[in-house]
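Give me structure tokens for this 98-residue protein.
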Amino acid sequence: MNSGPDEPDDAAMAALDINQADDVMICRPQGDVELRRLPEGAAIFIAALGERRAIADAYARTINAAPNFDLAATVAGLFEAGAIIEGAVPTSNRRRRS
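Here you go.
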């Protein structure tokens, strides 16, 4: 089967295991639609960030549900996918310089 831009290729279809649930992220780096399989706990972490929780709060929520969660790999994957576009430091947590 020849795959066009909107059709999955044979290798990707062969790698699917319909008996296993996976979390995926749909992203559009450089305008091309990509599906990325998320590591354990990443969907929980991303959802918490989407609720505008601090990273520490999102991590605490995630690690309780997914003890093998890898924060560094998840954050690196989000940057690589172009899913993190801005960040903010709450003013109440900033240290004052003397």
